[in-house]
Specification:
Blueprint (H helix, E strand, L loop, with lengths): L2 H36 L9 E3 L3 E3 L3 E3 L2 E5 L8 E8 L6 H16 L2 E8 L10 E4 L2 E4 L1 E4 L6 H4 L4 H5 L11 H18 L8 H12 L6 H10 L7 H7 L24 H20 L4 H8 L3 H9 L2
Parallel strand pairs: 5-6, 6-9
Antiparallel strand pairs: 1-4, 2-3, 4-5, 7-8
Helix pairs in contact: 5-6, 5-7, 10-11
């Protein structure tokens, strides 16, 4: 089987994992405001301790988010587990019960479990299991029950992005999307940590991907085109979704999808050159090879080749 055939077979899996990748990556930055907003747990930064999220028994599992939380004033330490669901899972209660048993066995700590539902269909999962000799319960939170303005008021871009999944209240989708985008732009334009870095484009691309869960891709694109922003991201959003065919392996053949179709090979090479420059810039800012490959939708081997050739 050719590399191209293998890649084509993997594409549906990669697409379905994009939401998980974004959320897991962003949780590192927005853990505390996320927990405070959704769970009402009084947790301080120094209370959280990293623990291995991989669960190895006769089978291997990996949870979406796992931290040990330090207890205070006589309270015991506990584990905080968070799972994100884009679809209703019929036996989510059984899976969470399985997680609880394995985690408790491994760490000998109480586990506070939360499932965050971010799908667009009505939430139907149950949050308990009850048998004659066994009872287990966990919390399920439908993010649509939270108003997006709770996220927009934050100055942490990773947290603001989650607003695209929340409820819009009385606001029209166009109004809510515009407010979310404007806050991201304001943060990245005024905070020196983000200004003139590749992260400015990364956050808007993440919103574009997450908007697929709400069917708002066209709304995002149109608003970005109409907004008076200081950097051009609209083209990158589509480019990163794979409009240029073959760019993942450095074959700038000028074969493109969508609006880029029919562009000359020379122009495609120019796009490739610009992308390579941004890969090097991202690498110099501390982005890992895996992060760069995911962000630019290219292979790890391609990123390594660009870095090696600098």
């Amino acid at each position: 089987m050719s590399n191209k055939q293998q890649k084509n077979q993997q594409d549906p899996i990669d697409k379905s994992n994009k939401f998980d990748k974004i959320i897991k990556e962003n949780m590192v930055e927005c853990t505390l405001p996320f927990i405070d907003s959704l769970f009402n747990l009084n947790i301080q930064p120094n209370d959280m301790v990293d623990v291995d999220p991989q669960i190895q028994t006769t089978m291997k599992r990996e949870v979406d988010f796992l931290k040990k939380i330090k207890g205070h004033n006589g309270a015991k330490d506990y584990l905080l587990q968070i799972e994100f669901q884009t679809k209703n899972e019929t036996r989510m209660n059984a899976r969470m019960g399985e997680y609880y048993g394995i985690l408790y066995t491994k760490y000998d700590l109480t586990v506070k479990q939360y499932v965050i539902y971010i799908g667009d269909e009505p939430m139907t999962m149950v949050n308990y299991t009850r048998h004659e000799n066994f009872e287990h319960r966990f919390e399920i939170i439908n993010i649509r029950d939270k108003n997006y303005l709770e996220f927009v008021k934050s100055d942490i871009p990773e947290f603001v992005i989650l607003g695209i999944l929340a409820g819009f209240g009385q606001d029209k989708p166009e109004t809510a999307v515009r407010n979310i985008l404007q806050q991201i732009i304001t943060i990245t334009d005024t905070n020196q940590r983000y200004k003139n870095t590749i992260e400015q484009q990364k956050y808007l691309r993440q919103i574009d991907v997450m908007s697929q869960l709400r069917g708002l891709q066209n709304t995002i694109t149109q608003i970005l085109k109409n907004m008076d922003i200081t950097f051009d991201i609209t083209k990158d959003l589509r480019y990163q979704e794979g409009e240029l065919i073959g760019e993942a392996r450095g074959e700038a053949r000028g074969e493109a999808r969508g609006e880029a179709r029919g562009k000359a090979e020379g122009e495609a090479k120019g796009e490739a050159k610009e992308r390579n420059k941004n890969i090097l810039k991202g690498h110099s800012k501390g982005m890992t090879i895996i992060e760069l490959a995911d962000f630019f939708d290219v292979s790890i081997e391609y990123v390594k080749k660009v870095i090696k050739s600098k």
